[in-house]
Amino acid sequence: xxxxxxxxxxxxxxxxxxxxxxxxxxxxxxxxxxxxxxxxxxxxxxxxxxxxxxxxxxxxxxxxxxxxxxxxxxxxxxxxxxxxxxxxxxxxxxxxxxxxxxxxxxxxxxxxxxxxxxxxxxxxxxxxxxxxxxxxxxxxxxxxxxxxxxxxxxxxxxxxxxxxxxxxxxxxxxxxxxxxxxxxxxxxxxxxxxxxxxxxxxxxxxxxxxxxxxxxxxxxxxxxxxxxxxxxxxxxxxxxxxxxxxxxxxxxxxxxxxxxxxxxxxx
Length: 267
Description:
Blueprint: E1 2-7, E2 20-23, E3 27-29, H1 40-44, E4 48-50, H2 56-59, H3 61-76, E5 81-85, H4 87-96, E6 117-121, E7 127-130, E8 133-139, E9 147-153, E10 156-160, H5 168-174, E11 179-185, H6 193-198, H7 204-211, E12 221-225, H8 232-243, E13 255-258, E14 264-266
Parallel strand pairs: 3-4, 4-5, 5-6, 10-11, 11-12, 12-13
Antiparallel strand pairs: 1-2, 1-14, 2-3, 7-8, 8-9, 9-10
Helix pairs in contact: 7-8
């Protein structure tokens, strides 16, 4: 399975694009501003979008992408774009984005029978067959209904936490999986730990306790995502500091790396 990082920042700035990952050629995980780096041909190939939650940094490119490729998809007789999301996320998008005020309702354009987009409700624990991918819906703990995802590859699962704070149920399931790589959010530095807790995001000190849930028999690379651009340098320093402190003498448990837009992986 090919994974392309389109965006992995918690906000925008020069060279910072918000969350979106392309699995193969036809599946998007989230639709942040990173989608804008795709060509029209690449966008037109996407048949499935899996959303973690309704926040703007994760959905902002969805209406714009649909508009960009609508004519191509209609001319090609393509099936409606399948947007997979929790019922609460679907309701939020219908009420606040695809409402004919902020953006046209592509779920009934050009007709309710043959729309450009169709919402597909999902549930935690569900295993989705989307295009050529198999993806499990994982629990997340956030200020709105939210999930993470685990996509099956040849070498194990590509696991993405989505936006979350402390999440015991997530680790209970992930420890049962063969994991090839983990992408985990750390939105704020410890200087903003109170804000991170209030907004249900991770800060480095809380990330450290979360990573302690990983079964000691499991070792895989851990990629940090969703850092706020103004905080990224400090977040990196704080994570490096705790990761250089062994939990046992001579034992540094974690292989922590930094995610950046443009990275590509084979899983």
